[in-house]
Amino acid sequence: RDGFQQKTTLVWSCRELADMVHRELFETCAARHPQFSFVPVITSAEQKTAYATSIDRKLLEPLCIALERNRLEAYVCGPERLRQSVTADLRSCGILAKNIHFENFSQ
Question: What is the pTM assigned to this prediction?
């Protein structure tokens, strides 16, 4: 299949830009497919980029609105603290708990 059948947003957080493998691929996909958005997040305070610096409600709220929050399915992968924080922010944005899914992650 060519393209995306439904709106899909990838929010991907890394400490350093160099850690974000395949970033160019996701940026190219976002440019070619109107149903796909790529939101890179770089958390290192030392590395200055134009990207967001944290996954928080300020970042998630507009995405949830754009993606029809009542139908949004969220998949969260990362360390436990990140999963808890993102889950709380998604819930505060109106995403149902049953629509938030997790992938185990180990460091």
Answer: 0.84
